[in-house]
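Morning F.,

Quick status update on the modeling queue. The single chain you submitted on Monday has been processed. Sequence for confirmation:
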Amino acid sequence: MSLQETVLMQLRDLILRGEFEPGQRLAEQQLAERLGASRTPVRAALATLEQECLVQLNDTGGYLVRQFTPREVADAIAVRGHLEGMAARLVAEHGVSRRLQLDLQDCLDEGDRLLSANPLTMESYAAYAAMNDRFHALILEASGNSALQRAVALNDRLPFAPASAMLPMQSTLDKDHEWMSYAHRQHHMLFDALKAGEGTRAQALAVEHTEVAQMNMRMALERRPETEQLLPAIRLVVGR
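Structure tokens below.
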């Protein structure tokens, strides 16, 4: 990994960990000193982060940490749902290979095992998130549509847009466990639709699946003080 890529990764991580206030000015020299780099890779990283919508230019040509409204986050989640819906429809229409069927079934079995415990531990929560990411990635890859894959990757650069970004944050609560179980039942239904070649149904299920993420975002905003401990980037969302 090059120095420029390292600085970009570090700066992106700092923003998403809530190390800066929404709207805070990002001074190149201070960032360079903090990251142990020169201003050149910092400047390049800020330009990339502007494209990713994590920072924005101010009137003087400097950069500020971008604020997001709840509506912007909801829109990004909705876009992911429609993109993944298209991917699911393509997979169903193309047919599910034996390898894909086995891989998706492994994900379902792992999710069933993890959710059999109540409450979830933080370790099992993290394992479920990894499984969830893999399940969604397998379907996207199997769609065979590179333009669609690029569109999802671009949308996923926005905070809270990726598949596991808005899983319930307080997983010890009974209500959150119920919602995770419901979301995983949707995984099972989507898998059945894919195997049956039901493209329209698979697409509708993938779109509906993101409603859980929408609900979780609303709950996270309502529980903001406790949510910030587990999801620091929630500080970037201003308003309700």
